[in-house]
Amino acid sequence: MELLPHDVVEYIFERLDVKTLLKFTAVSKQWKSSIIQCRSFQTRQMLHRKQSGKTDVVLVSLYDGAGSNPNIEALRTLVVGSTVSVKIPTTWENKFYQVCNSSCDGLICLYYRYNPSIVVNPTTRWHRTRALVSPSPGFGKDKICGTYKPVWLYNSAEVGLKIKSITTCEVFDFTTNAWRYIVPASPYLIYHSQDPVYCDGSLHWFTKGDETNILALDLHTETFQVIPRPPFLHSLLRLIESIICSLHDRLCVSERIWPEQVIWSFDSEEKTWKKIYSIDLKTTPSWRRNNRWRTFTPLSVLGKDKLLFYDGESSDGPLVTLDLRTKYCDIAYKCKVKAYKALCYVPSLISILDRATWNCCYHTTQMLRHKQSGKTHVAFVSLYGGSARNSGIEALRTLAVGSTVSVKIPTTWENKIRQPSPGFGKDKINGTYKVVWLYNSAELGLKNKSITTCEVFDFTTNAWRYIVPASPYLIHHIQVPLYCDGSLHWLTEGDETNVLSLDLHTETFQVIPQPPFLHGLTTPNLIMCSLDDRLCVSPRIWLQQHVMWSFDSEDKTWKKIYSIDLKRTSSALRDYITPLSVLGKDKLLLYDREFSGVQLVAYDLRTKYYDISYKCNDNAYVLCYVPSLISIL
């Protein structure tokens, strides 16, 4: 049981780095499945990192510029300002890869015409390969649906296609693991020497022709449009000295026109271009190498007065910072090797999940939030009238405790009794759900060596299978097995009553250490229940008291947690009451099994006062549940 509410744990975790969170996945299965692997949490954690002020860079395809070492290092990451970089081990060392111009949610897309393309998270080292693609693809995210899309837009004639469309556009679908066409494609030829840049839900290219424009593909609608023409692009000559980039999540273009390198930013709301930075090349000698001026690629804004650039030709290091006030340049990362390209990215936990996995993570988080909201929900199963004149059976009805209104749930099995004699629970390790039927062999007329037989239903094959060996103890078949903390529990039958447990992951039986209260009590006088996600047993001492004992699975001990003195309470509380849930700190929700109908009672442990929460004249099986979106896939 968590000492802190789920929301508080999430709030703390959001402020931790990815490396620490990955260690936590080995500490708690619940943290791993319900928090760390949840997409909404991953997004919030990534945004916190993005707002931390730190700038992270990934270097791709590092090699010895002198040619003395033919080895290629796949990936290396660093935080700007640190002198330490981290080599990222991969399965594609010594293979040259190019990289798409933009990272997206901590993911980068590698490609090369002779190797399968790879989408990789450098922080977690998760990666996924896909089909071959020729240069130069783009990679981005549909902001509405949250799906990631590699896109390949090319001039049809340049790849030998004799079709009416001057361009062809393909998008990779991760759900089918295949490429599909976008029709219609771009009405403009594109300038293929520069890779497209992702920004704000769209990919962007320079167009080719008499007039140069910037073409945008909306990754949600998958439609092309031309961005209002920049005031600075007039010819292909200018285009050679221009670079599309993204700064502060805005589309930018950097162009070099002697004696300046100017960076322009596009305002998507006002549809206008604005000059945001200007670099005087005459006062920045670092921009000159081998008697020629070069155009550096802007990567990021560092604080208010500094810019980070990528210099692919430098022998001192690929990253350069420029102080806009002092005009001073500095090598941000010194190394003797060159990198094909450098990208800024945000360390994240994100990977590209299939839709079913994504839904499962979301539904689990939603359920836990509801579980910790303090609301208690009750389900009534197979409601039927006490009178013989009413033969109708209502399958399901639900109720939120505290409300006087219950809701009938329509089903296709009305007027059929569904007595819950098997057990139902969840394998906490694999996350699979299991229906288990354990029964005494002789009572069903089976003549076999085993005194019990155990069957489990497999939802993947839609069939039952046996668990061997089954329980070595006879079970008390009148009471329904109880699920708690990854195991199903039964009361045994015989001279000595024990609590039998089946671990739903290992599918093995064990006897829980004998409770101190079972001596002299027969099985019918015992009630198993789950309170606060712990196994509890309530022994009934006739007309005297109900005592509830809780089992600590770590210490393997029993502890008395609640006691109801039947002699001091009203006669409305009968002997056969079943604990259903804890309401706050001082109240218990009880189900009166002897009442001629359904009666739910809220019992105050301090005042010994009870209140009837819900009452009806129909009989039913009653249990608490958590409303959720979960289904068995």
From TrEMBL:
Residues 1-44 form the F-box domain. It comes from the Eukaryota. PROSITE patterns: FBOX (PS50181). InterPro entries: F-box-assoc_dom_typ1, F-box-assoc_interact_dom, F-box-like_dom_sf, F-box_dom, Gal_Oxase/kelch_b-propeller, SCF_F-box_component. This is F-box domain-containing protein. It comes from Brassica napus (Rape).
